[in-house]
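Lab notebook, bench 4. The sequencing result for the construct came back, and we need a structural model before the next group meeting so we can plan mutations. Quick request posted to the team channel:

Model the 3D structure of this chain.
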Amino acid sequence: MAYQAGWQRSQPRPVPASLEAQAYLQDYADLLEALPFPSVVFDHCWDVVLCNDAFETLFAGIGPHPTAMPSHNFLRFVLFHPDASTVLGEHESSWCLPMLANFADAVKRHDQDRALQSIRRDIAQDPIMDAAYRHGLPHWIRAVGPDGVESDGAVRPLVHPDPRWGRTDCRIVIDTPKSLQDMGYTRMTLVLREARHAAAGPGRAHKTRNGAAELRAV
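Done. Here's the predicted structure in token form:
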């Protein structure tokens, strides 16, 4: 079951103490599995609690990594996995910078959280990423404004292993019901944009897509 597999992936995060909460997550896993688009539930540290088969299919070609697998911790995957750019198009501008901005906000709200501090230490060990986090990120946030940092509604490029999708875009939809919010979780769905991809065909203007992604998503 998706709930069991996803929950094992999220260890050592504790399962909810309430049997009712566990039952809710089991049913919510079934709901995710019915979705055709990649969907994932994670906590405030981006540790993955649940993900559906479509999410795992999107990252099926990703090689092993001790700490940065997409079904373990999505932030670590975006920032640290060497294969991330093979799936996440325009990796640095469309994915890394927005995620770093989200991470900086999370650190402000949970400054004593050990999992977040561990990620911060790993960022500090990469001189380029640390410089981007401490010096480049504040300038970038001022340049793009609040809409550029917001994940919900952003359109970002993807490279899907299924040729039916291929090189396309996704719209990020953050749609978290109250029961998940009360557990401290967030649900993110990547709505693949097959219709636009097919309509544009091989002659689609790359600059237009990049411009939209940079203005709306990064």
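The chain is about 50% helix and 15% strand.
Will bring this to the meeting.
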